[in-house]
Amino acid sequence: MRIRPLYVLPLALVLAAPAFAAQDIDKVNGSITVEPGQTAGNLETVNGSIRIGANARTGKAETVNGSITVAENVEAGGLETVNGSIRVAGNGKLSSNLETVNGGVFVDRGGDVHGDIETVNGAIGLVDTDLSGGITTVNGDLTVGVNSHVKGGIRYTKPNQSWFSFNKRDPKVIIGPNAVVDGPLVFERKVELYVHNSAKIGPVTGATAMRFDGATPPGQ
Questions:
Q1: Domain range spanning residue 40?
Q2: Partner residues linked to 142 by β-bridges
Q3: Domain count of the chain?
Q4: 169 exposed, middle or buried (CB, 10 Å; 0-12, 13-18, 19+)?
Q5: Structure pTM?
Q6: Are residues 37 and 78 in the same domain?
Q7: Is residue 168 part of a domain?
Q8: In terms of CB atoms within 10 Å, which end of the chain has fewer, N or C?
């Protein structure tokens, strides 16, 4: 008679058990906070900010009027707001897009974003971040900082008349030291484009790249 090891049955039961479904948090008015180390499902509010603590795990986070702030070592889905900024601290792992209309986007060192970054009015900054998609914006400065890699190109779309009156200054686009931008850089409006001599970029349409050395472009 063949004797099966005692650990086989318990292991089989563990593998067959359904995965724990993290609870969604859904509000209309009020902020949402996920405490450090906590696991949560999707986060959604209308009027309120969203804060995700260090080492937390969540699904996507969405708000209309409010900012989204993500602490260190977080794994989350996409982040989306209309009126508010998005800030991701070090080693953030995001599985979808980062989107805002009126607000900036910043991803700090070790960021890994599996999607695109989109905004209309607001600056975008990446530091040592890997972006699997591209960047699309209208107004606002853009810095693809040191050691960052944007795989889907960059596009500035042409603003309508109301956007021109909102922001008359031409945006500054900086591709920093050892940064890489795969794909085309397309500018449908006037920008100031600065590219570090150690950076690598795809073909440029609608702007002239000005090369620079050092940590920052001239005049910064």
A1: 27-89
A2: 124, 173
A3: 2
A4: exposed
A5: 0.87
A6: yes
A7: yes
A8: N
